[in-house]
Amino acid sequence: MSPSPDPFQPLQLGPLTLRNRFVKAAANEGMTIDGAPTRALVQHHRALAAGGVGMSTVAYGAVSDIGRSLPGQLWLRPDILSDLRVLTDAVHEEGGRVSCQLTHGGLYVPGMKVKGALMSACAGFNKVGLLAGNWRSRAMSEDDMARVGSEFVAAAQICAEAGFDAVELHMGHGYLLNQFLSPLNNRRRDGYGGTAENRARFPVSVLAAVKQAVGTRLAVLAKINVSDGVARGATVDDAIVTARLLERAGADLLVLSGGRNAESGAFMFGSNMDVAEMRKVLGRVASLAFRIAQIGAPRVQFKEMYFLEYSRRIRAAVTVPLGYLGGVSSLANAQAALAEGFDAVVMARPLIHDPGLVDKLRTGAVAVSGCAHCNRCIPYIYHPAGTWCVFNPPNDPQPNRVRAAQRG
Ligand SMILES: Cc1cc2nc3c(=O)[nH]c(=O)nc-3n(C[C@H](O)[C@H](O)[C@H](O)COP(=O)(O)O)c2cc1C
User: Fold this and answer.
1) CATH of domain 11-401
2) Ligand 1, atom 14: closest residue by C-alpha
């Protein structure tokens, strides 16, 4: 058996070479103004690149205005090109690569009122839009799918023009593409519903279209759920079908996540939400709505590498490069992931806690992350200074009030 690669060895993903195997997972930074990157977002990703990550991922880039889940969310459009360019230049100056996550909320729009019913796989009552007044969803037609597919393509082209090295299509966590994959939302009786193959058809077609449009310039990644982690949701067997189809459509890397924001947050994070911190940052009503949505979801006890058993099943089924994600907490975990056959190690919370972690692991300055997986960073997505680890000195809100490309 050949030895498993060193996590600090380069990795080839389609047209892209990473200096090492460490990828910062998309984690909504809360560092945008009117959907444009702020200076804080630039500083955040510069620090990650300076701290040694092979590639950082800018989170939660909506492909259209009605694809947004939250009003201020990053929204990819031509008039933010100069702000995006400042961001990608900063990461490149530090020797890192940078990906942009592309998403469409579908019916998952908890943060603003959208006129009319929201698009999804099926029509119905929409519990996640209750607070915002988005009570109903409508089933997408093939014309809707073609339009949304072209929005993903246009957003990927903007990313290419802005200097990104990769795009990551968000197919997990309960957003539009996941609403097709998951039987929780997809009860269609046409060629886009029923079997796992049919449920994957629209998401796979989006990846194929993006790959065709930008695949020679950018690596095209997808983030998928290994399982929805909730009764009647998509299972690991469904995820294997999805992974095989995405492999065939030309994905350069699949990032393996799990869980759904509305139904199974603890499964997604491998640890429970901190309700007191949520109430402190979000207020009573929003935090209560969040708790109600999670009623019935089992509480969990954190364990390192909490998606490993599921992700192994996918590793055994495909040859496409895979990023292991979920509870990587140490150099030993990263080495174990590579020894299991995964190609990259994808981390969110440990790198929110310490953007310099990768270089510290490389030099031996530390062997274990100081992240407690307490999830107290999560409500700070909505804080004026942006996402923050409560064990660090507070973020300065000032750079989060200025667009990235603003002079002076
Ligand atoms: C503050 C915060 C924000 C997040 N926002 C996103 C997001 O915008 N898109 C996404 O795909 N995942 C998001 N995630 C989930 C992470 O990408 C990752 O799946 C999860 O934190 C588990 O990985 P970890 O154990 O390395 O933290 C977020 C996580 C955190 C902590």
Assistant:
1) 3.20.20.70
2) 27
